[in-house]
Design goal:
single chain; 421 residues; mainly alpha; Growth Hormone, Chain: A; 15 helices; 74% helix; globular
Length: 421
């Protein structure tokens, strides 16, 4: 998700020079778009398997539980990378971390191609997660700094919008591209990874042309993992919005793991393009909602987002049990929009509760809870399918999520009504 990079400690605004020099703005502006494109490609690669899991199930006999385990491997890679190395571009430079992310994604693509057995899929998904954890914070910060140099008279709105589009837009694009290739090109479990392998190799060369925005001459601090802390002030509110982030990411996890099983197995629509298109519109709704909510107070984003998540989950569950593709899609779009709003509101609230010097640590704590939400409920669905049907497992997921959103909404309303201490 966007907008959680550590703010740069380096002043990237252009400084006056007594002698004429070529203006750096054009290179920085081109670099802004290149980094955005690399960011989008990396995020798209992470969701490529979403419409392809049916092919893996047919080829290898994977159960729904095994599909969720493969998906969980991605979440493990993201969490480990985000907290062990995602913040180190402040020390080693933005370009180096982006290259490292591209190296991880390239490695994953090669593994998908040459080691298609279950152990290879697990390793490839972990490597994909590592790349995503490296690129997300780094590219978001890099775009903000490149924008500040190329357009010093403008505020950060353009960079923020681009971060949303590259992140959620990339996540949306991956299943659509994979679905198109699987539908109309031979070798659906090979061609999508080959296409992105070429993209990453080209991207690595293009990143070389992007200006570095970190002063690499500064002394590097001693390495430490990203700290995770919870602000003492407003801690009850922080806990509440962290749970909201958990709920938001559980929706995103659902549509990048087992939703294709509902579409093909329960709703009897086996087209990979259709499955990929549904995931595309869900993530597209999340991105659109976040962009449209610019300037809306965080508490309102949370209230509306949680309500949309609850309504969407009810409708899509009804679609599965009533064998209605239309209801499933409508519910997914509403839930996706709600997830985008909920997370944006939670992120803004968490950042606002923390002191400036501990803001990144507070955001890191929120992200930890959010990524647990990405993985844990989906694995729970997989475990449940060993005993009950997939629609029944979804009903359990929906019930739990409705209880969580209701509890968070009530808690936030109670905190807003309480007088400050």
């Amino acid at each position: 998700m966007p907008l959680f990079a550590n703010p740069s400690r380096h002043d990237t605004s252009p400084t006056p020079s007594p002698t004429p020099a070529p203006a750096p703005a054009p290179r920085h502006d081109i670099g802004f778009w290149l980094v955005g494109g690399v960011f989008a490609a990396a995020m798209a690669f992470s969701t490529i398997p979403a419409p392809l899991y049916g092919y893996y199930r047919e080829r290898d006999g994977f159960s729904t539980f095994m599909i969720t385990v493969i998906f969980a491997a991605y979440g493990v890679g993201v969490i480990a990378s985000l907290f062990l190395a995602g913040h180190t571009s402040d020390w080693f430079g933005r370009r180096r971390l982006i290259w490292a992310a591209l190296a991880a994604e390239t490695t994953a693509a090669v593994i998908f191609l040459v080691w298609p057995a279950l152990p290879g899929l697990l390793v490839a998904r972990v490597a994909t997660g590592v790349g995503v954890g490296l690129v997300t914070a780094t590219a978001t910060a890099h775009m903000g700094e490149l924008h500040a140099v190329s357009r010093p008279g403008q505020g950060p709105a353009r960079a923020d919008r681009m971060a949303v589009l590259a992140n959620l837009g990339g996540l949306a694009l991956g299943p659509l591209v994979a679905g198109l290739l699987a539908q109309y090109v031979a070798h659906p479990l090979t061609v999508p990874y080959l296409v992105f392998l070429v993209v990453f190799v080209v991207a690595a060369g293009l990143v070389w042309t992007v200006p570095e925005t970190v002063d690499l001459g500064s002394p590097r601090p001693r390495y430490r993992p990203q700290r995770v802390s919870i602000p003492a002030v407003g801690r009850p509110q922080y806990y509440a919005v962290a749970v909201a982030a958990f709920a938001a990411f559980s929706i995103l996890g659902l549509f990048t793991s087992v939703s294709s099983g509902f579409v093909s197995g329960t709703l009897h629509h086996t087209s990979p393009l259709l499955s990929g298109s549904i995931t595309f519109v869900v993530f597209g709704a999340a991105a659109t909602a976040q962009i449209a909510a610019a300037g809306v107070p965080a508490d309102r984003q949370l209230r509306v987002g949680l309500a949309l998540v609850a309504a969407g989950v009810l409708i899509l569950t009804g679609g599965v049990w009533g064998s209605s593709l239309a209801l499933f899609v409508v519910g997914g779009v509403l839930a996706g929009a709600g997830a985008g709003l909920s997370f944006k509101g939670a992120l803004s609230t968490a950042a606002g509760l923390a002191l400036p010097e501990s803001r990144s640590e507070a955001i890191a704590g929120l992200l930890l809870v959010a990524f647990i939400g990405l993985v844990l409920p989906v694995v729970g669905i997989g475990v449940a399918t060993t005993s009950v049907s997939l629609p029944s497992a979804l009903l359990g997921f929906a019930t739990g999520l409705l209880l969580v959103t209701a509890a968070v909404g009530i808690r936030l309303r109670s905190l807003a009504a309480s007088p400050p201490n």
